[in-house]
Amino acid sequence: MPKFDLEALRQRLSGRTAHVGVIGLGYVGLPLVDAIAGVGFSVIGFDVDQAKVDRLNAGQSYIHHIPAATIAALVAGGRFRATSDFTELGQVDIMLICVPTPLTRHREPDLSFVEQTTRAIAPHLRPGHVVVLESTTYPGTTSGVMTPILEAGGLISGRDFFLAYSPEREDPGNAEFQTKRIPKVVGGDGETALDLAQAFYEQFVISTVRVSSTATAEAVKLTENIFRAVNIALVNELKIVYEAMGIDIWEVIDAAKTKPFGFMPFYPGPGLGGHCVPIDPFYLTWKAREHDISTRFIELAGEINTAMPRHVVGRVADALDKHQGRGLNGAKILLIGLAYKKNVDDVRESPSLKLIELLEARGAIVAYYDPYIPEILPSREHAALSGRISLDWSRAALAGFDAAVIATDHDGVDYAGLVEACPLVIDTRNACARAGVVAATIVKA
Questions:
Q1: Residue 280's pLDDT band (boundaries 50, 70, 90)?
Q2: Do strands 19-23 and 42-46 pair parallel, antiparallel, or not at all (unpaired)?
Q3: 43 - beta bridge partners?
Q4: From CA 53, how far away is CA 26, in angstroms rounded?
Q5: What pLDDT is stored for residue 279 in this prediction?
Q6: From the CB of residue 238, how many other CB atoms can be counted at a distance below 10 Å?
Q7: Torsion of CA 352, 358, 359, 360, to 10 degrees
Q8: Which of 98, 276, 422, 432 is catalytic?
């Protein structure tokens, strides 16, 4: 079996001369490429989508908060290129796996992308390779799913190759916390794997946080997102309670957060979206059942958050009845914001898509406006919405709707103009109040 020089590998990782492979060039992988290549590493990006590969090699970007100029500079400088040829994995020293980990239709973990990627790596695995999974998953995935596949060829983890887990912590659109400014949790299959992974990550992130195992690192990521999901569910439930009492939940939170200890503000909305918070808690609930444990608290939070789009639709119907004396059937509704959060071009798990379907199921005629999403692309979950185009913003166009529903509070939207032109505005994000817009035709939901 070929030998490798462990100390030389360590020096290449810490000296930024190692060749890096990033597998999966989406909302996690592409910012990672930017951070790694930005400090001098040579990076090959791997993706099965040839269209993405071609765009990147042409110096283009398909993610709003990653400028094309950034990609073009990395390509022109020879620090980055993309490929769909996975045989090139043999050329790199460290591989970072950033592939999706969605749920099945039965809300169970779908690890097919992780498994397929691991099988793609296996034929090209050589002594001295470092493999790091960044995709969010349940505790035990790295050791229980990846290790057997990678060891099937005869190489042994911790001796011949080195396996680690370091969860992604991306917050798309957050200019304050880009990849390099977010501490990186790292767990390894043994001390050597942990040391090597840490030596690599500390070259381009502000700090690293060592934990005792890959399973612990996997649990850290789930805990972060479950914490967020549960607290959002709490304020969503409080919103409904306070609505019935005539109390503004947003005013309550703004006052409560002045307490300098013991309180952390979370905000309600029309439902949860994105690739993490709506999905990750169910990875733990599924795994917990293996140990005969019921995760009632987490599952209740999921129920509350999942029910929010229906609550919003009910508020829209009530507002139309109160202000215009009509119901949803035949009403022309404009949805403001399709992305799952403000200032991004990401619609994964966006509650806006569910809102459109629910409103139309009750007879409404729905259009949308989103400066970041010019067209709804095909998806398995919302196939009937594919091809719809964002409204061209104009006062005349806005006046043609019976009501507008603010589902995503993008910066730069003319909320004052919206309220002036549209006869009724249902605001699920408190966007109007934050913009200083007050009117009797604004209804918070």
A1: confident
A2: parallel
A3: 20, 80
A4: 11
A5: 84
A6: 16
A7: 110
A8: 276
Query: Is 110:103 a contact under the CB 8 Å cutoff?
Result: yes
Query: For 15-66, how does the pLDDT look when each residue is reduced to its tens digit (9 = 90+)?
Result: 999 999 999 999 999 999 999 999 999 999 999 999 999 999 999 999 988 9
In this prediction, residue 2 carries a pLDDT of: 63
Q: State the distance between the two ends of the chain, measured CA to CA, in whole angstroms.
A: 65
Token couple for 95: 């591989």
pLDDT tens by residue, 122-155: 999 999 999 999 999 999 999 999 999 999 999 9
CA distances from 106 to 70, 92, 239, 282 (A): 40, 37, 29, 11
| Domains defined for the chain, CATH in brackets | 6-213 (3.40.50.720), 228-444 (3.40.50.720)
Side-chain-side CA neighbours of 2 within 13 Å: the count stands at: 8
Residue 432 catalytic? no
What's 283-325 look like in SS3?
HHHHHHHHCCCCCHHHHHHHHHHHHHHHHHHHHHHHHHHHHHC
Output the six-digit token pair for 247: 């109390």
Place of tokens 């409904």: 240
The predicted model scores a pTM of: 0.92
Above 60 in pLDDT, residue 1?
no
Contact 214, 187 (CB under 8 A): yes
